[in-house]
Amino acid sequence: MNLLYSQRQLKGNNSFRYVVYILIAYYNIFIIVLLYIYIYIYIYIYIYIYIYI
């Protein structure tokens, strides 16, 4: 009985770990998208300043 419970607990932990991995992956994608947006903003500001000066 105790063995079955421990196996069930392991399965629960594995599914939880899977969810955590998905969340980390989405978080990394979100950070990469934010970095691209910041790079584009800096390029636009640089071009704007370059044209006006």
Structure, explained:
There is one protein chain. The protein is an all-alpha fold and 53 residues long. The protein has one domain (1-47). The protein is 96% helix and 0% strand. It has one helix spanning 2-52. The radius of gyration is 23 Å and the shape is rod-shaped. The chain crosses the membrane at residues 20-51.
What's this entry about, in short?
Helices cover 96% and strands 0% of the residues. With 53 residues, the chain is mainly α.
What would the principal axes of the Cα set say about the shape?
rod-shaped
Rg over alpha carbons: 23 Å
Largest sheet data = none
Q: What are the secondary-structure elements, in order, as H or E?
A: H
Which structural category do the helix and sheet elements fall into? Answer: mainly alpha
- Portion in strands: under 5%
The beta-strand count equals 0
Kindly report the oligomeric state of this protein: single chain
Span of the ends, CA to CA: 78 Å
Rounded average pLDDT: 82
User: What is the helical fraction, as a range of percent?
Assistant: over 70%
Give start-end ranges of low-pLDDT stretches. none
Number of distinct helices: 1
Q: How many separate structural domains?
A: 1
